[in-house]
Amino acid sequence: MNSLTACVPINCKTLKRIQREASEMKLKPKILLADDHHGMLDKAMTILRECFDVSAVLNGQQMLEAARRADPDVVVLDISMPVLDGLQAALELRRRGSRAKIIFLTLHEEDEYLNAAMACGAQGYVLKRRMLLDLQLAIEEVLAGGLFISP
How do residues 10-31 score in pLDDT, each as one tens digit? Predict the structure, then answer.
């Protein structure tokens, strides 16, 4: 007798259970937030935690260290942060070869900031005043390979 086991047909109920369990095992996309305002981080985490695996840091230098360890799918950065600002941090993240998508979450509505963010390799630009409406949409769009800019 050989060691191969014969395939046993399974019923639809069992197959659906197996598919459901496999679907539940899929990992949520990893999001790394970097902002020096605790209140803003708390709001963003509340918005995102149901659909994403979210972690947070307080400046650009901490973001680089956390990104190296966690290999996030998306990094959401404030532009104005201490130690290392978001634009410099994004450039360094790209220089290090990170595969993470970059979204800026910022108060800055001026075109010069938007242009600087895009020049740093950003795929998204979300205004903080539109965070509740736009942040999750922006993440989903960049994960799908698109570009998102708050209106």
Answer: 566 765 666 566 556 568 999 9
In a domain, 99, yes or no: yes
Report the C-alpha gap between 81 and 86 in whole angstroms: 7
27-51 pLDDT, tens per residue?
899 999 999 999 999 999 999 999 9
CA dihedral 102, 106, 110, 67 (to 10 degrees): -30
CB environment 124-134: b (16+ within 10 A), e (fewer): bbbbbeebeeb
Per the structure, the count of domains in the chain is 1
Vertex 57: Cα angle to 132 and 30 (nearest 5): 65
pTM of the complete model = 0.82
Whether residue 125 lies inside any domain: the answer is yes
pLDDT of residue 27: 84
In a domain, 32, yes or no: yes
